[in-house]
Amino acid sequence: MGRSFRKLVTAITFVFSVTFFSTGVEAQLSLGDLASDHGSPPVIQDSVEPGFSKGIVETGVAAGGALGLKIFGTKATHDLILGSIDIGRIMSDTKCPGAWYQGNWELLAEIFGGYQLNHGGAYVVGLTPLVRYNFVDHSRWVPFVEAGGGVSLTDICRPDLSSRFEFNIQAGTGIEYFFCKNIAATLQAKYLHISNAGIESPDHGVNAAVILAGLTWFH
Question: What is the pTM of this model?
Fold first, then answer.
């Protein structure tokens, strides 16, 4: 792992930790004010009612990095700085109510872009439709799993790619923490694969483990 990539991961972890700490302090101050107003300690609730119902739209932004993996025939590691913007729509009412896996199906469209840190640098951009399942139990923490595939443009080249036009496949998991009713901090980890499906050679593909942190708004 390159030094620049380690610094990037450290910075992301620091920012995400500060966000959670600041949120906790703000919540404690608000509860203290409420107690002063009413003369007795308030009831502390660890739940919110985020907008996970059919038709709700979400908009999210995230940034992070990807550690290149030499798997499935890839000849070199490709470490990346990445950012993404997504918009999604909850497509179902709550499924399997009462079960540990109760939740909602969601469709998203993600635009991502980034820069390769090694091998002389290179750009990559992509558009990916995703299917996500949110595990919703009305707590502040909402885990999810997602998968999808789309198209990409990149000048990452030999020894693993040979064309500007590529396809991408993504699959991963994450969690959202609602620090207010309709805004959540998001942390996700996913697998990213980029290749041209054998249209041109070589086509060994780019494979990477991605970590992203960001914010999501529900409306």
Answer: 0.77
